[in-house]
Amino acid sequence: MKPWLRRLFIILTIGGSFTGAVLTLQAFFTTKEANPMLYAIYACFIGLYAYGIFAGLRFAEKEEDKAHLIIFYWLQVPWISSPIIGYRFTSGFHVSGAFIGDKMSGLFRLGSDWQFNFFQAIPWGLGLNFFALGVVLLLMRKKKADPVVTDNDRAEPGRV
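The chain above was modelled as a monomer; its predicted structure follows.
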């Protein structure tokens, strides 16, 4: 992987996760509702952002250790909207598109946000975070193996 691309993934993952965790913590402590379910949802998304920090640090330490980073970005790919459950989660940057209700919707943002709805009056729809999907595909791409050089392929000095 190119060094600039690796550094970009590290910055977006760690920085985006830290930002998302801080913003969610702020909402956690300033909410006026005493709903335990709301606090549980906040805690889950703080946990997801903490996992992003962990995944980014693991990738920063060792480029080959990208399994956690792949999982973290897979969690950002779906955008689900229904009266039963709604889910969207992004960290760092996203370019998303969806068909929700009877229209097409799109978003992009440099930053982190999430949305979770449970039994709300929202329309049916599905979408994708195209940036996260692209990151997953890049991370899952196999590196071309260098050709193996054997002793028979090497020329001995003085021998033609």
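The chain has four helices and six strands.
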